[in-house]
Write a structure and sequence with these properties.
With about 625 residues, the chain is of the alpha+beta class. Among the domains are: about 170 residues, D-Maltodextrin-Binding Protein, domain 2, CATH 3.40.190; about 250 residues, Dipeptide-binding Protein, domain 3 (Roll). The strands form seven sheets. The protein has a six-stranded mixed beta sheet with strand order 16-22-15-21-19-20. Helix 2 packs across helix 3.
């Protein structure tokens, strides 16, 4: 799965754990519409401007005025004078067997987003706005029913061919037909695609019961354009190590399957001088090295085989950084906190398994998770208990909501647990051993009420006599320690938790096929939540292979609450809708609430790399914002 780029860009930067699997973002599960028909370009007439349209804006904003003016020179959090040259070497765990990031088949190499430009992209300090890249400007209808993109005449693919509106149309149709499930779901919301000329394309969108989806113009802004000429005669569904022609700051330079991938900076990159890119993409070479496990990864960093190491193991951070290069000052440690959205870690249930159909069972299993003990013994008290899918942001209500949120939840009470209509959720995190003992008493009562009783020290179904045994699948030894501690706690309730360790390839396939019972899973959200929430929580996504509804949630209330987020018309309404969805999902116990941290912990070879001053509200992105300290 495509985790590494997000890891470097955000999750690792903010203390993410590599063995927790992130969701794939940005989809909406309306599958009822058809692929937009290809227009006859020769007969297209230029449409009349939509009344009230904002003409030729270099940025599109969902709610408010863009932070950066039209004449801005560079982003605030990069060094516009960063030198170009040198290389950065980064290590990760796993393997890969394909360079096609847009299909469900195969294990995708990391870093491929560096090779493709989007029409427009967001910054890290303006969550609701997209700024021009391939599209130098855009018009957007005030009711969000349409958007027109104007392609920068300088935009080029790596072979020098121009990027045109035909490439945009081709990309949408190809990805809908053969790409990841989310593309079909997304782009099926297009009512009509009109090619006005080779550099101007208009998209009009389908109107839903609540009106037009305010995010669709921004969703389409995120399109990473593929070359029609390069792909029209290629089998797009085939995996393999032949690079797909891109337009981004880097191209694939060298590949050693499953071991190493190198990207080289495109020296004549067409968008290098755009304000959105100034001070970024500074390394001539980005090298990503793959390792089988964390031990070999860390040992290789210690002897200088790669340049920076983003620490995911708090115990290792506090106990293992006494090696020679640290003592000599060659390797520097950096630790600070940040105010960015975080990756929250949970232990999810497979709701397609009847074992977890009863919320009392799910809740009891959750109450057995002793966060305080594990945090102390395994993580040096570095983590915070998870109270929200949107932890470390203004959306996190700490399990307590106000009347505005309860008003949104009220119409859906038939499909929700009654406790969700309370202002305060009864979350299971205990702070002391005494509180945890009380949690275990509650868990025992819930299990008994669900018909699961103790016999000969085992929790069994009183009707069938079948013992309650759960398989927990892991692929990383660091996670295995946590799960084994959890198994000991569940054993006190008579529940057997079996740990099944598999390799990365097998793990990915089992998860894709929804054949697991419990796994660790991380949730990554942004400061501008939207229609991607439907991809996490809709019934359609639950049945869609390759979607991000790994849990298999099929709940009409949860789906409706997720949909509210995509049609929010103000930041105030967005916050209410996000809190309502979060309150409902947390209260349904589809997962064991875990933990999060807002630490930035990394080490780097000081004579090789340099970086801008770390802004806690922005985070860091090693591959894009750093530079080689001594460029030869």
């Amino acid at each position: 799965m495509k985790k590494f780029y997000a890891l470097i860009f955000g999750a690792l930067v903010i203390g993410g754990i590599m063995y927790f699997k992130p969701f794939q973002p940005n989809v909406s599960p309306d599958l009822s519409v058809k692929t937009p028909e290809k227009p006859d370009v020769s007969e297209v007439k230029k449409p009349e401007p939509v009344p009230g349209t904002i003409i030729h804006t270099p940025a599109l904003s969902r709610f408010n005025k863009p932070k950066y003016p039209s004449d801005f020179k560079s982003l605030d959090y990069v060094n516009p004078n960063a030198p170009k040259g040198g290389r950065i070497r980064i290590g990760t765990i796993g393997t890969f067997d394909t360079l096609n990031k847009d299909i469900a088949k195969g294990i995708v190499a990391e870093g491929l987003l560096l090779t493709f430009d989007p029409l427009m992209k967001k910054t890290q300090d303006d969550p609701h706005t997209w700024y021009g890249v391939i599209a130098e400007k855009a018009d957007m209808a005030p009711d969000f029913s349409a958007v027109t993109f104007y392609i920068n005449p300088k935009a080029r693919f790596h072979d020098g061919s121009p990027i045109t509106t035909e490439d945009i149309e081709f990309s949408i149709n190809l990805l809908m037909e053969k790409g990841l499930p989310r593309y079909k779901v997304f782009y099926s919301k297009i009512e009509k695609l009109t090619i006005i000329d080779s550099h101007t394309v208009q998209m009009t969108f389908k109107k839903g019961p609540e009106g037009y989806d305010r995010e669709m113009p921004m969703v389409m802004s995120n399109l990473r354009v593929l070359s029609k000429n390069a792909l029209k005669d290629r089998d797009f569904l085939s995996t393999g190590l032949k690079p797909i022609l891109g337009s981004g700051a880097y191209r694939v330079f060298k590949v050693d399957q499953g071991k190493t991938i190198l990207f080289e900076r495109v020296k004549d990159y067409w968008a290098a001088d755009l304000p959105i890119n100034v001070g970024q993409f500074n390394f001539d070479i980005i090298e990503i090295q793959y390792y089988k496990n964390n031990h070999s990864l860390f040992e290789s960093f210690k002897v200088g085989e790669f340049d920076c190491y983003f620490e995911a193991d708090e115990k290792q951070w506090h106990t293992a950084y006494d090696f020679k290069a640290i003592k000599q000052g060659k390797v520097k440690k950096v630790q600070t906190t940040h105010t960015r959205p975080v990756t929250v870690r949970t232990l999810i249930f497979n709701m397609q398994n009847p074992l977890f159909a009863d919320i009392r069972v799910r809740k009891a299993i959750s109450y057995a998770f002793d966060f305080a003990m594990m945090n102390k013994q395994l993580f040096h008290n570095a983590y915070h208990p998870m109270t929200s899918l949107f932890a470390n942001t203004h959306f996190d209500d700490k399990g307590i909501v106000d009347d505005s949120v309860l008003k949104v939840l009220s119409p859906y009470k038939a499909d929700l647990d009654p406790s969700i209509l309370n202002a305060k959720l009864d979350l299971p995190h205990a702070k002391t051993p005494a509180e945890q003992r009380q949690n275990m008493i509650i868990a025992d009562k819930l299990l008994t009420e669900a018909g699961l009783v103790i016999k000969d020290g085992q929790r069994i179904n009183k009707e069938t006599g079948k013992p309650l045994t759960i398989e927990f699948m892991v692929k990383d030894q660091r996670l295995e320690k946590l799960v084994l501690e959890y198994a000991r706690s569940l054993a006190n309730l008579g529940i057997t938790l079996k740990v099944r360790r598999v390799d990365a390839v097998q793990y990915e396939q089992v998860v894709l096929d929804r054949k697991f019972e419990m796994i660790a899973h991380s949730w990554s959200n942004s400061l501008s939540p939207g229609i991607e929430q439907l991809y996490y929580f809709s019934a359609a996504a639950a049945d869609m292979k390759g979607s991000s509804n790994y849990i298999g949630i099929k709940n009409a209330a949860i789906e409706a609450l997720a949909k509210n987020i995509s049609v929010a018309t103000s930041e105030q309404d967005l916050e209410i809708y996000v809190r309502a969805l979060n309150h409902a999902v947390m209260g349904m116990y589809y997962f064991v609430p875990g933990m999060y941290d807002n630490n930035i912990c990394f080490a780097y070879w000081a004579d090789r790399l340099d970086m801008p001053k770390i802004n806690p509200a922005v985070g860091i992105n090693a591959m894009e914002w750093w530079w080689a300290k001594e460029v030869k």
